[in-house]
């Protein structure tokens, strides 16, 4: 009897060990979970495109499970992330504006990604600026400010559809020719973050809007005043742009429907515009003040947040590298119009065939040699709002250029003094 019970006991112990071992094995196989905040800030089906990419990653990386959280505009995404940080529940990863770096550092929220930056063969312009000796953002969906124009309307107006405006003077001349058709000459978004569309004009006039340390802005520089005077003149002097506030989302819609001949917008809107328009779409560099083409950068970077476990950090880095690899960068560029963040993306055979048929997608990458960093400071939302309010008050006819920009400079100085 004793022998029988010993055999039973041994068998049960073995079964328990087997069950226990199976549980351990199952636990070991459980994938590392990553939460990933992703903004949808421009025209187009970015939510669907992103979900497809994430699904492809999860399928090929069974030890990692990425769950995207679609968080609205860039501004809404930053606000959500800051709230989560302060509540102690930050995401593992987020794509936010590259300019968010100073506020994230002030919150002591992000980890450096120097090794990824060094290994990625990214366009140098997209990795700038380096902050405190480190790279904290890895470029993903980056954009430039570009000029779109309707080639059919150009031809109808007696303009050469293969010669878009090269200077500010050309822009006015072409817009006037379009106006004679009863079509609006040009539209530039003036709601929301209109500082971004304003920046290329200021840069071309001789001065970027901010320093590279996050602590100084140049809102009332002579270049900024020249730029805002020109923008105001488009509507108030030349009459080629509607007066008042033009919503960001309305501008590409007006272009796609043939209501306007030219628009200034994000290169990230290209794919959606091409899909919606029933005419030949031209895309070109921002017209120069005189002869110097310049633009500013925009779009989002990957940020990795403190609080992630070691396994989550490793998984997040694997995800970032995969998403910014030449193949995926090419895919994302084709689907959206964003700049493919590495030159190797444009060497992919599929991308070469695609850009041969759609040369507009090469313009943003060609602009990078002329691109300057986007306005980036501490307390970024407040600083941007200060400049946006000044620009809008001028374009809406409520203020004059000089006092509006002087007031914006004074307000910004007061905000940034807290960080110096």
Sum this structure up briefly.
Helix content is 47%, strand content 14%.
Task: Characterise this structure.
The protein has 420 residues and is α/β, with parallel strands linked by helices. The protein has two domains: 31-142 and 298-372, Periplasmic binding protein-like II (D-Maltodextrin-Binding Protein, domain 2, 3-Layer(aba) Sandwich), CATH 3.40.190.10; 144-296 and 376-419, D-Maltodextrin-Binding Protein, domain 2 (3-Layer(aba) Sandwich). It has 17 helices and nine strands. Strands 1, 2, 3, 4, 5, 6, 7, 8 and 9 form a nine-stranded mixed sheet that branches. Helix 2 links the parallel strand 1 and strand 2 (64-70). The N and C termini lie far apart (84 Å). Residues 1-27 have low confidence and may be disordered.
Topology:
Elements: H1 2-29, E1 32-38, H2 46-60, E2 64-70, H3 74-86, E3 93-97, H4 101-106, H5 114-119, E4 138-150, H6 151-156, H7 168-179, E5 184-187, H8 195-205, H9 222-236, H10 250-256, E6 260-266, H11 270-276, E7 281-284, E8 295-304, H12 310-323, H13 326-336, H14 349-357, H15 363-367, E9 371-372, H16 380-395, H17 401-416
Parallel strand pairs: 1-2, 1-3, 5-6, 8-9
Antiparallel strand pairs: 3-8, 4-6, 4-7, 4-8
Helix pairs in contact: 2-13, 8-9, 16-17
Helix content: 40-55%
CATH superfamily of the largest domain: Periplasmic binding protein-like II
Tell me what portion of residues adopts beta-strand conformation: 5-15%
Low-confidence stretches: 1-27
Work out the helix count: 17
Oligomer: single chain
Level-2 CATH architecture of the largest domain: 3-Layer(aba) Sandwich
Q: What's the CATH class of the largest domain, please?
A: Alpha Beta
Integer average pLDDT: 90
């Amino acid at each position: 009897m004793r022998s029988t019970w010993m055999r039973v006991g041994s068998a049960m112990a073995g079964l328990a060990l087997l069950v226990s071992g199976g549980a351990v094995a199952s636990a070991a196989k459980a994938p590392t979970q990553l939460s990933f905040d992703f903004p949808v800030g421009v025209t187009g089906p970015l939510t669907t495109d992103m979900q497809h990419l994430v699904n492809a990653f999860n399928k090929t990386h069974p030890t990692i499970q990425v769950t995207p959280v679609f968080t609205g505009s860039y501004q809404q995404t930053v606000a959500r992330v800051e709230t989560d940080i302060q509540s102690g529940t930050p995401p593992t990863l987020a794509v936010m504006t590259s300019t968010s770096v100073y506020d994230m550092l002030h919150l002591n929220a992000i980890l450096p990604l120097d090794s990824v930056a060094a290994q990625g063969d990214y366009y140098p312009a997209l990795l700038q600026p380096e902050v405190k000796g480190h790279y904290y953002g890895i470029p993903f969906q980056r954009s430039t400010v570009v000029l779109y124009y309707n080639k059919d309307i150009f031809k109808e107006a007696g303009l050469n559809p293969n010669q878009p405006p090269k200077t500010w003077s050309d822009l006015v001349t072409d817009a006037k020719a379009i106006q004679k058709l009863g079509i609006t000459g040009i539209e530039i978004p003036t709601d929301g973050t209109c500082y971004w569309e304003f920046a290329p004009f200021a840069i071309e006039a001789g001065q970027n809007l901010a320093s590279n340390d996050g602590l100084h802005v140049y809102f009332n520089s002579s270049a900024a005043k020249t730029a805002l005077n020109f923008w105001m003149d488009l509507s108030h002097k030349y009459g080629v742009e509607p007066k008042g506030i033009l919503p960001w989302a309305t501008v590409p819609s007006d272009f796609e429907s043939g209501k306007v001949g030219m628009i200034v917008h994000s290169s990230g809107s290209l794919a959606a515009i091409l899909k919606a328009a029933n005419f030949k779409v031209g895309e070109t560099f921002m017209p120069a003040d005189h002869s110097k083409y310049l633009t500013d950068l925009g779009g989002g970077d990957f940020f990795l947040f403190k609080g992630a476990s070691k396994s989550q950090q490793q998984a997040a880095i694997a995800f970032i590298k995969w998403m910014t690899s030449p193949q995926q960068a090419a895919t994302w560029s084709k689907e959206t119009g964003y700049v493919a963040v590495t030159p190797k993306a444009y060497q992919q055979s599929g991308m070469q065939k695609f850009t041969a048929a759609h040369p507009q997608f090469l313009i943003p990458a060609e602009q990078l040699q002329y691109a300057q960093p986007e306005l980036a400071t501490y307390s970024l939302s407040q600083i941007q709002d200060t400049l946006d309010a000044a620009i809008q008050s001028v374009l809406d006819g409520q203020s004059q250029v000089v006092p509006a920009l002087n007031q914006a400079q004074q307000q910004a100085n007061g905000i940034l003094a807290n960080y110096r």
